[in-house]
Amino acid sequence: MSSWNAVVTGGAKGIGFAISEDLVSRGFNVVITGRDSAALDAAVQRLKESNPKVSVTGKVMDVRDLDSITTTFAEIGEQFESLSALVNCAGIVIREDMETVSDDTWLTVINTNLTGAFRCSKAALPLLKSAPAGASIVNISSIAGTLGIAGRTSYTASKAGLEGLTRTMALELAEFGIRVNGVAPGWTRTEMVDRGINEGKIDHDHVSSRIALKRFAEPMEIATVVNFLNSDEASYITGQTIVVDGGITINGNT
To answer: How many folded domains does the chain comprise?
Structure first.
């Protein structure tokens, strides 16, 4: 079995699944986590079929729940002696503005997108420290982390916080040979985005017109950047958030 082991939170769907699929193609053993056991089972089956030579496991975990995180990473520690990569991809977006967002909604988004990434990184730290050739953490941010996007108060705050956390973790973990970076995707054709388009909540043509490359990203275009950061080719990169947005942030606000 490969000695390269990775965990991808939110790895059953969308960008998380693409990241997992790319890791498997690179020969990593992968653990994917999520709250939907049926989606996890389906994703694990697809990943196993794509590379039968590696280990693929799905674990039900809620990144908002510290006990769930602690239990899951204890189980991962029984499975692997070390982790080479942790990708904090689990996240949600709830479209409410500052005036209408409730405290419960605010906390749900912050606890998922920001606190969840912190807690998972902390829980994974003993395994990451044990990686023989150094390890990598990649936090999945968003262009919302640097742009103000009206109607997404909690989401933009969580992603801005995640980018600050990425920089500080990079400083604190460098002595252990652990690099910490972020990737900030722009508009990407995931199931969630497609649902927003179909429901009329996202104006595909308007958004595309704002993107320099005039199209949405495919999930694998995000995944390959994430796993570049997880690779030895990025051995001198830490504390950075790489924007992968087709040029929308150089073309004004979304």
So the answer is: 1
Beta carbons of 222 and 185 less than 8 angstroms apart: yes
CB 72: neighbour CB atoms within 10 A?
23
Report the catalytic residues: 155
Average pLDDT over residues 52-69: 97
Domain region containing 88:
5-250
Tens-place pLDDT, residues 99-124? 999 999 999 999 999 999 999 999 99
Residue 193 CA to residue 175 CA, distance in Å, equals 39
Question: At 96, which CATH number?
Answer: 3.40.50.720
Q: Region 77-86: what's the mean pLDDT?
A: 97
Query: Residue 37 contacts by C-beta under 8 Å, 6 or more apart in sequence?
Result: 58, 60
